[in-house]
Amino acid sequence: MADLAGSRHALPYVLNLSMVFTELPLLERAEAARAAGFTAVEYWWPFETAVPDPADVDAFVASVEKAGVAVTGLNFFPGDVAGGDRGLVTWTGREKEFAHSVASAIELGERLGCRRFNALYGNRIDGADPAGQDKLGLENLALASDAAARVDAEIVLEPLSGAGKYPLKTAADVLKVLDELGRDNVKLLADLYHLAVNGDDLDKVVSVHTGRIGHVQIADAPGRHQPGTGTLDIEGYLEKLQTAGYRGQVGVEYKPDGPSADSLSWLPFERRGLA
């Protein structure tokens, strides 16, 4: 068993390779993560379209298998993130594209053994009725829930910061959607950075809502860099989550302040391969 001396919790870490090691080409990042000591990784959607070229998918799968890491999380296709898009779940007129995205992600997840999928809710659209968008969101989340259930997987939904038109800012915003949806395999993704930046009550989130959390992600605030670069008591909140019964993984999803390998010095090597 790894030495946990100096750590306030025993939760396992997974490295998000859509944020860390991005100085490397996509197909080289899994090997870099394994060399850094991680046995599990997660990605956003690693392709530019909802239905990627099969050759690109094969190359991606091969890179993961060669590295010998597990993929524990994937996003559904979110649209043009660089252009400001934040998901298709509530995007009127792109229902078929979302359905194709779900099918593509579930198929890739089956190949990789991944059983967690992040469904970004989507921005408010100028001229569209917010209530209509939310109704579509419930329909699309139900579709995703059904598809995930067929492979014993779960969907997570997260609040975001830094996206003015994205309506889910707090844990309560997400939980309201989950209550209306009523699906056991759709849960809250508690990204401590986004919640903190949005002014949410992290103590309440980690003590009251732990049972509804499907995944946790971290970055320090402000700045969204590695732990220790800001003021967020990340270790303390992870300890509280574990005490409250959370037994899942912690996604390391920050923008490295400096080279990615150097930015991982906050996490002892022996703590990186527990997942």
TrEMBL record:
InterPro entries attached to this UniProt entry: HyI-like, Sugar_Epim/Isomerase, Xyl_isomerase-like_sf, Xyl_isomerase-like_TIM-brl
Gene Ontology molecular function: any one: hydroxypyruvate isomerase activity
Keywords of this entry: Isomerase, Pyruvate
Domain Xylose isomerase-like TIM barrel: 31-267
GO biological-process terms attached to the record: glyoxylate metabolic process
Domain of life: Bacteria
Gene3D superfamilies to which the protein is assigned, alphabetical: Divalent-metal-dependent TIM barrel enzymes
SUPFAM superfamilies linked: Xylose isomerase-like
Pfam families: AP_endonuc_2 (PF01261)
Annotated active site: E158 (proton donor/acceptor), E253 (proton donor/acceptor)
Family in the record: Belongs to the hyi family.
Protein name: Hydroxypyruvate isomerase
Organism (species): Amycolatopsis orientalis (Nocardia orientalis)
